[in-house]
């Protein structure tokens, strides 16, 4: 492997890390913000059919990644490496969020241990609260420790202890909060 290829691989991997930070702030401040909630709301409620309005975010980001491939092809392999990083992040996001957590794939697999389990439980706690306020855990590839999230939810007082526990365990593929 030449030095250049190694450099581009590192840039792509660094882009994945940066994308998690970017996705966190998008999710926290735009999607759960006043204007972005119009699309994201569909993802926090029971929806019918395969698609939800929230998928439009994925479409927008995919279009941006494709555009970056064209720009990179014309201008610089650095930009191309970034485009690959964004694409890899999108793939990981799909596997973790749409697959592992929300089971939007044709088979059922729920992780019962390790970091994958923590990812799933953290995102279930994200969906535990009704509405756009007081939610926890906005990341997709990084999940804070579950006890910390439970504590945060208890402290904000929006959910009682029993409902918090039920949210961690009982929620399957659904998006809506467990009652
Ligand atoms: Zn959300
Ligand atoms: Zn979700």
TrEMBL record:
* Keywords of the record: Carotenoid biosynthesis, Membrane, Oxidoreductase, Transmembrane, Transmembrane helix
> Is-annotated flag, keyword Lipoprotein?
no
Q: Which GO terms describe its biological process?
A: carotene metabolic process; xanthophyll biosynthetic process
Transmembrane portions of the chain: 6-24, 56-72, 78-96
Q: Read off the PANTHER family from this record.
A: BETA-CAROTENE 3-HYDROXYLASE 1, CHLOROPLASTIC (PTHR31899)
Question: What family is reported?
Answer: Belongs to the sterol desaturase family.
Q: What is this protein called?
A: Beta-carotene hydroxylase
Q: Which organism is it from?
A: Aureimonas glaciei
